[in-house]
Amino acid sequence: MEPNLDDVTLVQITDTHLFSDEKGELLGVNTLDSFTAVVNDVLAKSLNYHAVIMTGDVSQDHTDASYARFEHGITPLTKPCFWLPGNHDYQPSMRSVYPSVQIQQHTHVLVGKHWQIILLDSQSEGSPHGVLSKQQLEYLEQTLTQNPERYSLVLLHHHSRLVGSAWLDQHCLHNSDEFWEAIAPHQEVKAVLCGHVHQDFKESYQGVDVYTSPSTCIQFKSQSDGFALDTLAPGWRSLTLKANGEIETQVHRLSGEQFLPDFESQGY
After folding, report:
1. What is the pLDDT of residues 240-259, one digit of tens each?
2. Is the pTM above the cut of 0.90?
3. Before 99, cis peptide (omega within 30)?
4. Per-residue b or e along 213-252, where b marks 16 or more CB atoms closer than 10 Å to that residue's CB
5. Of the CATH numbers 3.40.50.150, 3.60.21.10, 3.40.30.10, 3.40.190.10, which one belongs to the domain with range 8-253?
């Protein structure tokens, strides 16, 4: 990525839930078709972006082929893509795409003159909730300490702040207190960004902006204690990291009702 940029713009894509089968559906939505439509929407916006970030749940069926579909699907975006695992991901299959022209293995990225991105692995194997291991927490603290002159954007899959949906919040980051204790001494951390909850959410906590973002396929209804799907369309988020430490961000959604899910579904 160009090192001399004052402002850096990112495209966040999350929770694609792809299958090896191009006809694979999640709760009535063909996830490859909706992912492709989101990529096309990014292109249609003619945004001057510098990288793509993918915050987990790339795959729904753990197959090498599903990750290959993601790799192929982002080709039109042309920029480097940085990703991390979600609870549905199988990391040996994620690694099957390397070497990749676009998808990068880096978990620490210096972006432009003023920012860094730290990508964390919150996967708790076999569980839908998240946990940051001792090693991941130490990595976070070490990276922040080594680069105090840079503003920081921290990425992980699981939400570290409750979003107000009981069924989703039981699957949050279970050691979020430790996560926030690690961040607390570092005022240069400006935002924490994740996926997982398939909805747009923002909160300010300890002076840090906390965001979750829409999935490229199904959307979960906000403020719902039980499992519920939303009528909102698939989407993505753009973020511009400014030279003064501010972030300009916007959620973009597809138009129309092409990707409405099966509302009779009781869970997934």
Report:
1. 999 999 999 999 999 988 99
2. yes
3. yes
4. bbbbbbbbbbebeeebbbebbbbbbbbbbbeeeebebebb
5. 3.60.21.10
